[in-house]
Amino acid sequence: MTLAVYLSGEIHTAWRDDVIAGCTGLDVVFSAPVTDHAASDDCGVAILGPEPEKFWHDRKGAQINAIRTRREIERADVVEVRFGDKYKQWNAAFDAGYAAALGKALVILQPPEHDHALKEVDAAALAVARDPAQVADILRYVLTGALPS
Amino acid sequence: MTLAVYLSGEIHTAWRDDVIAGCTGLDVVFSAPVTDHAASDDCGVAILGPEPEKFWHDRKGAQINAIRTRREIERADVVEVRFGDKYKQWNAAFDAGYAAALGKALVILQPPEHDHALKEVDAAALAVARDPAQVADILRYVLTGALPS
Amino acid sequence: MTLAVYLSGEIHTAWRDDVIAGCTGLDVVFSAPVTDHAASDDCGVAILGPEPEKFWHDRKGAQINAIRTRREIERADVVEVRFGDKYKQWNAAFDAGYAAALGKALVILQPPEHDHALKEVDAAALAVARDPAQVADILRYVLTGALPS
Amino acid sequence: MTLAVYLSGEIHTAWRDDVIAGCTGLDVVFSAPVTDHAASDDCGVAILGPEPEKFWHDRKGAQINAIRTRREIERADVVEVRFGDKYKQWNAAFDAGYAAALGKALVILQPPEHDHALKEVDAAALAVARDPAQVADILRYVLTGALPS
Amino acid sequence: MTLAVYLSGEIHTAWRDDVIAGCTGLDVVFSAPVTDHAASDDCGVAILGPEPEKFWHDRKGAQINAIRTRREIERADVVEVRFGDKYKQWNAAFDAGYAAALGKALVILQPPEHDHALKEVDAAALAVARDPAQVADILRYVLTGALPS
Amino acid sequence: MTLAVYLSGEIHTAWRDDVIAGCTGLDVVFSAPVTDHAASDDCGVAILGPEPEKFWHDRKGAQINAIRTRREIERADVVEVRFGDKYKQWNAAFDAGYAAALGKALVILQPPEHDHALKEVDAAALAVARDPAQVADILRYVLTGALPS
Amino acid sequence: MTLAVYLSGEIHTAWRDDVIAGCTGLDVVFSAPVTDHAASDDCGVAILGPEPEKFWHDRKGAQINAIRTRREIERADVVEVRFGDKYKQWNAAFDAGYAAALGKALVILQPPEHDHALKEVDAAALAVARDPAQVADILRYVLTGALPS
Amino acid sequence: MTLAVYLSGEIHTAWRDDVIAGCTGLDVVFSAPVTDHAASDDCGVAILGPEPEKFWHDRKGAQINAIRTRREIERADVVEVRFGDKYKQWNAAFDAGYAAALGKALVILQPPEHDHALKEVDAAALAVARDPAQVADILRYVLTGALPS
């Protein structure tokens, strides 16, 4: 069994690396959005030309990013969404909703202080983890049946 | 043509009333989540019994609310999501993602200061409005072809 | 909002009547399997002729019952499955799995002594109730936002 | 032709080994739930932390197991469900219903004494076998056209 | 519960009338292909102009008939297919396959002499009846739970 | 049987009126895009505010029109697409492709001089008509079995 | 591009070999039902034990064959159905209907004398061929763009 | 991540080669319709025999081409549609609509003079490019996150 796992959400800490490191030796194929914040913001105008209006500047970029993100979510077996401490993170919650509607296995990684605000998101999830090691432990168990010692 | 319109998102201002008032005479069937904040938070334990852990208190409620919200989104022709000034509003973004994955027509109502943070959500929407009157104008035009005078 | 609710499971107590009575005045359309045990067992051979083998006697009946049950589940907004005290009740669990795969809102009604054995079923449900009044309370809240007083 | 076969149900006898041994040389990819009963029961709390309430202890585990089981059923060409002599086995019937709703080829392995109780499950199946060798014979025939000699 | 029942197949005997008469008082909405053989054969050229080639003459008609038949099958809860004594009746078997792939409840009405030739069709059906009265009895039981006296 | 028919395509002649007039007395519910050319072009900026760039002016309008057109196509039983003598009419061909992918019954209304250019579109259609009366004749036949006298 | 092609229908002549031979060098993966007539008829009872009733004897076999045939049709890009000179061939027409409902590319191979009887089947097909060489030519063209010289 | 990209539309310039050359080193699998205009027009009659009527000559060819084009669109992650300077190009717009209804990521390549006529098509697209190099840049960014320098 190969698991395709999409790592959505926060792009300002190294949590993806921690999940991936924790899954060493497992048959997992990871994917993620473009995590270079500046590139992600500006890809639309960098490729297709400038826009005087910031709204359309953003739109052009967000639509190109959607080519990648929607496709990866559609291909994933597990969609793991990380909510961090900062920013609005509406794109993370959007991805969670998108994945839920497609029937994907949803795993949320969040600090306890967000529990109440994320209750509707969590209600669609199969697991709510507190740190990347738990996410890796879930993937290991799902693939091998082995529990953390 | 009857339009089923689900009004998702912010529950602390009267924007739903404004949209509905603006659609007087149109063949629209509106639906919405339970907008009584306390009832929405506590429905799980009020009906099914108390939980010592806040996490499960929230979970029981959020799951019961999901019976209503998922069904209404699935039935809707248009999902209108309002982002307000306060709170995390991750459930609003989750609904937007859920609706987008189902191919619903998505209309977002948001103040300009959220434009950048909502760019991924907006990129899946067919319209981004600034006030409830615009939402009503869109629905009137979609149903009758009439533009605001 | 009209809710279509399918009442699956146990046919030896009057729980369906209790749920329906508790929903007086609500816009709910209830459906159920044929609850006449003898008719349900023998419908195949009663209509299409006898079978010497009990296995095919059962098969003919179960397939005719499936015309009704699968269609009602597919049409339902909420699938409510009752597990009682007696019998194997595999058809109840089958209905729950069928409903879950179709993305229906699943509500389970079960006594606490079955909690461990039903944990996989419950994990797909949006609510686990203990008595029919709670099921009615859920439906009332979902439709009207009103909590039990 | 490669067949993906999910072996659901009873975890207390070696029937999976028998099916797999009987398919030696065939192009079959087998999958199964985690069959270590203790790990399966406790995976939720072992990974994500303890729960004082047994109900939520079970729920956390069952949801993590669902990451694996639902995905394997969705990927399978054939879902083989074994009903044994003991326990409630509602998860087995749930899997059968889940697979049936997805249009999977369903093969049930059951002793004759369960025939009447399983008639609704069997009515959705393409074969009802009595022992693992028959299951292997079915898979061999489906893949190669060869009948048991 | 209203049942939408599509009556496919043989158009040279009055079996549809018999089924409909047997369902007096039931909440069934029947539909059928155009049963005027000449109109069904010639509708394409009668409406859209003549074709020198018989193959395209037939094609134009069959495609117009498909507007009706595919839509009715897609809308039906039950697809009842009658195989009679004469003709190739490949359109009947085609309808049965079409309905099966859509997950419709399939009821076949056939004389015993066709049993072997129809075994693949029957294997996808929930009932195989011998006369129109049995079909009506099935629909009555499905809707009301009443068995023939 | 009620037929939902969406009349897509050319908006500069009265062909829709002719089809509708030809269907007098039939159980057809017609729908169409907004056929006021100016309103259709400008609805985006008229409702949501002006855009300095013509590209986004068009985009805002086209997206609002899509709320109506996609929904009507999804609801339709028959999608009738008219290609006229003028303009690029790419939106008509787009609608045809959209309808084809959804498995809708597609009827094309086109002059013979477009036959070669429309061959890929026609290849997905169940009928190619030359004038609105033929379209009405098709709908009459589909609903009643009556051919033009 | 690899094409998965399912060769359905007649099992008494060598037409499958002819198609396959004609596709030498092409990237096609062929599949087919079990073409050993006796094995296909008796597989149910040979594996699962005898049935006194011929009807159930046939049913057990047809259901096991369906494990293979339905799966192959669902996996196929092209479903090629051959109608020969003999037998009822309702299973061939059933496969064609099944494939059509799934949106598969359907190619029919039939002698001209069956044209009228097969007009509904042909109306769902993208090609009607007269001999296996034409089928191979179609597959070659679809894969490489090369026409027969 | 491998991206399957279908290059639809204009067949008279070398834009496909330019896109492909611009993607050197990327994990993209390109596909396209048959771009030999004469072969594409005549494949039907060349393989299946002549037709006296041009309409059916075209139909036979267009249907065979549809075996390839529909399948490639269904398999694609990204559908790139090029509108050139000449011809009606309704098949390009049809492909865009077909892809949009399937939820594919749509990228349009068009000169500015077509912007107004293509506004409904563009409204369904995630990017509108002006030259093949931009298309390649989009694919490179989607796959690697790298922007053009």
What does the secondary structure layout of this molecule look like, with pairings?
The structure is a homooctamer of 149-residue chains.
Chain A: E1 3-9, H1 15-22, E2 28-31, H2 37-48, H3 54-75, E3 78-82, H4 90-101, E4 105-109, H5 119-122, E5 127-129, H6 132-144
Parallel strand pairs in A: 1-2, 1-3, 3-4, 4-5
Helix pairs in contact in A: 1-6, 2-3
Rg of chain A, rounded, reads 16 Å
Q: How would you sum up the major sheet of chain A?
A: 5 strands, parallel
Strand order of the largest sheet of chain A: 2-1-3-4-5
Approximate shape of chain A: globular
Helical element count of chain A?
Answer: 6
Taking pLDDT < 50 over at least 5 consecutive residues as the criterion, the unreliable ranges of chain A are none
Task: Indicate the proportion of strand residues of chain A.
Answer: 15-25%
Query: Average pLDDT across residues of chain A?
Result: 97
In short, what is this structure?
8 copies of one chain form a homooctamer. By secondary structure, chain A is of the alpha/beta class.
Highlighted features:
homooctamer; 149 residues; alpha/beta; five-stranded parallel beta sheet; 6 helices; 16% strand
